[in-house]
């Protein structure tokens, strides 16, 4: 039996990941082994998101895992922001390296060294690339899928002629993530701009997609950065414009990671385990034969023809009882379970159970419409996630109300903020809540902390 969510959400989360065979702890402290079922979820995310990325005119590449120290030093704000998390290589074989190599914490610097060679003229722009890769960041408090020393992600990098074009690209990437999280993962999300304190090191500004988990904490699902000309000036990335004048390019970078799988667990899961959205589930339907009779096998062959466009699995395992299998596939979050025994064969019917409702339904074989059932279930998960987010988004009028709400209820807190980093820092120190994103600028009202005229309306939350 799993720990109940209300009893200990963090423990429940770890138990689900381990019990559902998504991942396990590695002999290397702080790292994880992604098991076949967990990796199948990532493959579905990767495959479908990769199509969305390519639809933006972006091409895939691959860059080295190792980055020369001199590259990181070229952009001062960037190296300052990542310094505490960088893993360094100082020796290769039996020889000490003349220059340390960073194990990729992100790839802006090594990619910009290549951009300097690839970009000469306005005809080379816009340049849009993406890579699927592993990243290493020395996390002090690792958690499976959420924060590990090594994780998988994609990172897009683009170069443009003008600031306006880079702005549009950063917003387009953010919208792609926003739509993907909602339409594929079934998780409701909000998008907005990060504060200066929370932005990506070296960026002009950062945009993010934020979702609320069932324990009332926020999870950053993806980010998009307008890098301005900081990196292009540091690396000398210039192009000749139509008039023959040299200009520095404007750049963006954007990415999501295996953290999305952690979001799937926490946004949809219940006390029975995972609940996977059909569009991303490794198996959309599992068939459990109640007996191994020939008539049952023949009947299942008929069902297979109906499922020709569905990812399905037939559990013929003779070593486990049907009841054990019901529990196991509920734990793994398969969207629909079909149960077939002599009764169904004789009646010409199908018994099925939706994972999110756990209610048995019986229909005629000819009336079973798997595509519609799966599409409806996908929509239901998003609707439930949206309602949960709306029900747990609170508007507060005083700082005392803010503190009481974040302590007793959690969730998103919508409030006014003066724009002063001192207020932002004090709120974090006193409540552990951070500004997840700026919802609106130039909003009239008093700052929730100091009472001064507010510059923005923001969403606060405790976050992973």
Tell me about this structure.
- This protein is α+β, with helices and mostly antiparallel strands and 464 residues long.
- The protein has 3 domains: 21-268, Bira Bifunctional Protein, Domain 2 (BirA Bifunctional Protein, domain 2), CATH 3.30.930.10; 285-373, Rossmann fold (3-Layer(aba) Sandwich); 393-461, Translation Initiation Factor IF3 (2-Layer Sandwich).
- The chain has helices at 9-19, 36-54, 69-73, 76-82, 108-118, 163-183, 230-235, 259-268, 294-306, 322-331, 342-347, 370-391, 399-408, 421-431, and strands at 23-25, 32-34, 59-60, 66-68, 87-92, 95-103, 127-136, 150-160, 190-193, 205-212, 218-228, 238-240, 246-248, 250-257, 285-289, 312-314, 336-340, 349-354, 360-364, 393-395, 412-417, 434-441, 456-461.
- The strands form 6 sheets. A 7-stranded mixed beta sheet has the order 3-7-8-14-11-10-9, with helices on both faces. A 5-stranded mixed beta sheet has the order 16-15-17-18-19, sandwiched between helices.
- β5 (87-92) and β6 form a beta hairpin.
- It is globular and about 80 Å long.
- The chain starts with 8 loop residues before the first helix and ends with a strand.
- The mean pLDDT is 96.
Task: Please name the defining characteristics of this protein.
single chain; 464 residues; 14 helices; seven-stranded mixed β-sheet; Translation Initiation Factor IF3; globular; 3 domains; Rossmann fold; BirA Bifunctional Protein, domain 2; alpha+beta
């Amino acid at each position: 039996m799993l720990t109940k969510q209300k009893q200990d959400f963090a423990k429940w989360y770890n138990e689900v990941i381990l019990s559902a065979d998504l991942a396990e702890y590695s002999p290397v402290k702080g790292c994880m082994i992604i098991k076949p079922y967990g990796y199948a979820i990532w493959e579905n995310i990767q495959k479908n998101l990769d199509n969305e990325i390519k639809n933006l005119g972006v091409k895939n590449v691959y860059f080295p895992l190792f980055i020369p120290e001199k590259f990181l030093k070229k952009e001062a704000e960037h190296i300052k922001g990542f310094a505490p998390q960088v893993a360094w290589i100082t020796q290769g074989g039996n020889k000490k390296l003349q220059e340390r190599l960073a194990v990729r914490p992100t790839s802006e610097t090594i990619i910009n060294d290549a951009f300097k060679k690839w970009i000469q003229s306005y005809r080379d722009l816009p340049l849009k690339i993406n890579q699927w890769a592993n990243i290493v960041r020395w996390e002090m408090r690792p958690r499976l899928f959420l924060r590990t020393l090594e994780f998988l992600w994609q990172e897009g990098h683009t170069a443009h002629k003008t600031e306006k074009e880079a702005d549009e690209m950063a917003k387009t990437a953010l919208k792609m993530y926003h739509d993907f999280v909602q339409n594929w993962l079934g998780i409701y999300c909000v998008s907005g701009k990060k504060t200066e304190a929370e932005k990506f090191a070296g960026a002009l500004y950062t945009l993010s997609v934020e979702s609320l988990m069932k324990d009332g904490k926020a999870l950053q699902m993806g980010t998009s950065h307008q890098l301005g000309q900081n990196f292009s000036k540091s690396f000398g990335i210039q192009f000749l414009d139509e008039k023959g004048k040299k200009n520095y390019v404007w750049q963006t970078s954007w990415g999501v990671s295996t953290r999305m799988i952690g979001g799937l667990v926490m946004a949809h899961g219940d006390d029975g385990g995972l609940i996977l959205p059909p569009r991303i589930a490794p198996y959309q339907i599992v068939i459990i034969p109640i007996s191994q009779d020939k008539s049952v096998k023949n009947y299942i062959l008929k069902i297979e023809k109906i499922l020709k466009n569905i990812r399905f699995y037939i559990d013929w395992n003779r070593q486990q009882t049907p009841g054990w299998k019901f529990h196991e596939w509920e734990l793994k979050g398969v969207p629909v379970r079909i149960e077939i025994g002599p009764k169904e064969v004789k009646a010409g019917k199908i018994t099925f159970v939706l994972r999110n409702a756990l209610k048995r339904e019986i229909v005629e074989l000819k009336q079973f419409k798997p595509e519609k059932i799966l599409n409806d279930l996908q929509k239901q998960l998003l609707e439930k996630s949206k309602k949960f987010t709306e029900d747990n988004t609170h508007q507060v009028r005083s700082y005392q109300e803010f503190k009481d709400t974040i302590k007793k209820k959690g969730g998103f807190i919508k409030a006014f903020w003066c724009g002063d980093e001192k207020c932002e820092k004090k709120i974090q120190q006193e409540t552990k809540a951070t500004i997840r994103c700026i919802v609106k600028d130039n909003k009239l009202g008093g700052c929730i902390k100091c009472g001064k005229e507010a510059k923005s309306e923001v969403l606060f939350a405790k976050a992973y």
